[in-house]
Amino acid sequence: MSEKLLLIGGGHAHLSLLKKMKKNQLPNCEVTLLNPTSKYYYSGMFSGYVEGIYALEDLEINLASLCERAGVQFIEGTAMSVDAKQKMVLTEKGDILSFDVLSFDIGTRRKSMEELPESDSIYHLNRKEQIQELGTDESRRGEVVIIGGGAAGIELGFSIQSWKKKQGDDGNVSIISSSPIYGESEDDRCKKQLKEKLIGAGVVLRENERVEEVRDREVVVGSESVPYDALLWMTGSEAPKLYKSSKLPTDDEGYLLVEDTLQVKEYPFIFGSGNGVTVRQYPEIPRNGVMAVRQGEVLWDNLEGFLGSGEGYHFKPQKRYLTILSTGSRHGYLRYGSFCTAGKLAWKMKNKIDQKFMSTFK
Ligand SMILES: Cc1cc2nc3c(=O)[nH]c(=O)nc-3n(C[C@H](O)[C@H](O)[C@H](O)COP(=O)(O)OP(=O)(O)OC[C@H]3O[C@@H](n4cnc5c(N)ncnc54)[C@H](O)[C@@H]3O)c2cc1C
After folding, report:
1. Which of 106, 185, 194, 281 could covalently link to 9 via disulfide, CB atoms 3.0 to 4.6 Å apart?
2. What gap in Å lies between CA 294 and CA 274, rounded to an integer?
3. Residues facing residue 100 across a β-bridge
4. Ligand 1 pocket test target in 14, 147, 288 with most atoms within 8 Å of CB
5. Is ligand 1 within 6 A of the CB of residue 12?
6. Which domain holds residue 156?
């Protein structure tokens, strides 16, 4: 009898699994993917979309048709609870899905989302429609305030500023960050270069300032009220609630705890990958798309091993990896370890890598 493999979440690691399955089948196995939407938007190209370089279709991956081509059943839905002992998953529609082997790749949530009021002017990108809306004038015109000075906030700051320049919109783009931009631990020389570029582009930087409260159309920073026409909530990430509420083993912050084989120690038939897990042997690895894709490769080998011969491989994160941020107007900022450079060539490389990545899903 064949085994049931249930994939929860169509994140970067599961995408690379589906790509493999277009050519190779896992042994003796019926595979299902559960994801809240049938469309997935590739974050590496968000900034280019916001700036008007790419159309929405350029960053869209159709999960339902990718699954069809990979011989995988696609179910639109969200996992609400997992019973590891009974091997059952409950979805938000009340459906119960059974499995023999389970794999999570559900990413993370934006920090402190519950502090946000209901408002059409606040964008956090956790919902698919919000990604579409980022390409509309409402999200880019007038005073745009971005909360969060990580890679996502910085890229969006550059791209909206660049869009404003092309459109002749004289509103400001401000980035407010409770810590220095681009993380505390980034190399100083590279960070300095990036900061100078942001200021040079006209982005208002407010580092080490904490947002006390978010209201409709204004944020309170210290004792000052900062008005906005659009607010982009690009704070750091936090663990999805599903793991803790399902009583699965987690680290102190609620991320699913897996071994370097990407398996949960207590339940070896449960795998986890992507930004929503902590690998016990490497708790410090950065949570980004590059790492999630890399884990996808090990995940394939280990699922194949688990379902077949029982053999597995160990995940070893790269020490250095390439990051390219878009800095607007088809320029980029490239980092590899402590090396960094900026200019047109960096953007061309990013564009080529992103287009190649997307072409593998067509
Ligand atoms: C503007 C922006 C730019 C970025 N640029 C880059 C970049 O250039 N390079 C880079 O490396 N990283 C970049 N990132 C970060 C990158 O997007 C993430 O690191 C990456 O998407 C994480 O991948 P993942 O596989 O963990 O999960 P995700 O890609 O977050 O996917 C998780 C999936 O699981 C689904 N899901 C969630 N909960 C459930 C549930 N309960 N049931 C079923 N499905 C569920 C979600 O809907 C989603 O489809 C950027 C992020 C942003 C916001």
Report:
1. 106
2. 9
3. none
4. 288
5. yes
6. 111-236
